[in-house]
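agent> fetching stored inputs for the protoporphyrin IX containing FE docking request
agent> found them:
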Amino acid sequence: MTDKPILTTTGGAPVPSNDTSKTAGPRGPVLLEDYQLIEKLAHQNRERIPERVVHAKGWGAQGIFKVTHDISKYSCAKIFSKVGNSCDVLSRWSTVAGESGAADTERDVRGFSLKFYTEDGNWDMVGNNTPIFFVRDAYKFPDFIRTQKRHPKTNLRSPEAMFDFWAAQPESVHQVTILMSDRGIPTNPMHMNGYGSHTFSMWNADGERFWVKFHFKTQQGHKHYTNAEAEALIGKTRESYQEDLFNAIDRGDFPKWTMFIQVMPEAEAGQQSYNPFDLTKVWPHEDYPLIEVGEVEMNKNPENYFQMIENAAYSPSNVVPGIGYSPDKMLQARVWSYADAHRYRLGTHYEALPANAPHAANVQHYHKDGPMRFFTNDFGNADAYYEPNQYGGPVADPSVMEPPLKIDADAFRYPQEVTDEDFVQARELYLNVLEEDEKERMYENYAAAMGPCSKDVKERWYAVLERVHPDYAAGVRAANDRLDTDVNAVPITDDTQIEAAE
Ligand code: HEM
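agent> prediction call returned; pasting tokens
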């Protein structure tokens, strides 16, 4: 007998040995009846699940959201009904391109996901640390991501592909400017903002709709690494974000963000020079000021990372009454895409996993069996397994119906022409937001990123930058010219040159 807890099989029976196989003699062979050995090896073979196709490397925490300001005139969501309301939150921050073992401080956009477990059900904010994105049509997303991932032949990341794609999508220049600026490498998730990026909508108890953008401003202040600092850090640890975040929360230094919204009355959309549903554009703050809503505080490290963070399934389709979508076509594609990804990555009933199961809301749906059916969901009456039924099973509630979305246009593939308007906000950022020293660093960051690109691709990108501002193009060109690119200034797909470089 031992006074330690007893190891059991997955069936709950005590295990007599966990280190010695059952054999036909002292030298073996192993008996097939040593089922627990087979079970142990089989479990090891199944410990991994597919990593996320994008945003595979991530860090997360649990916490709370508190409403500090009244926005009930914009939204009838219960969470916003009263100052002082609160709900649990699960966060996951991520890099976009790197695999799950990638170094934390790579230059990349950061994902910024928050799951609000409200009494109306889960509301997911699946945003980034930038208020805009590279493209504005979902057709372009898989190709864009392909250029960020590995080349099919070399299995290397390909700067040539990245800049080739961006040069062909000049609307990306706004986001690429942010990526190459200081904000391209936050020191850790605690020192960056989060943005819903898309235009969403809210509606109030009177059925009035407003277009809305979400902002989460870090209370820790922005902090970023230069390329050199990040490189030195990666030489010491590739996991600095996980270390910083876990240790801060462990010692009680809880990171906080202030939540704001920008609000545009429904009828105002269309009165701007830019399309307010275009994901490559911000809404100027002087036109649509930030309205404070509340505070997010992350104050608990999950007991088990895999259970809560790897299993977390965020989706823009998770909205609650009072919060809705907009005509932004990228957003609409995302509404369909994520649940499909979760069913593949996690399984049919992924919403029932502890990370995803609503906290306060009562889940009552008629989706029935399949993998991971470990919830009863029979509403206390086994006969109510279809709908409509005469047994008092749950029914839809028309009172939470969203107000009609006003659309009066022909269905058509409207051409995505790039116009001068696509360079206005990038120019504003370049001229009026970036300080001179940051511009200099940005030119150098470009040179580091573009070094291996062919001359042709570089020229095509300079032509895009010219449309933002000639000084921008000249700065990047000069930084590139300063680099000795003799060996690398060829397409990464050219075999002879790769061999020559080896
Ligand atoms: C049409 C465009 C897009 C498509 C089809 C798409 C699709 C996906 C997919 C399939 C995943 C993996 C989900 C998983 O396996 O858990 C993902 C993750 C993610 N995406 Fe997107 N995405 C798009 C654009 C965007 C944009 C514009 C943003 C930010 C504004 C964004 C933010 C994120 C974040 C933060 C994650 C990681 C979520 C997590 O932490 O688990 N995506 N995306």
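agent> quick read of the result: The first strand starts at residue 58 and ends at 67.
agent> awaiting further instructions
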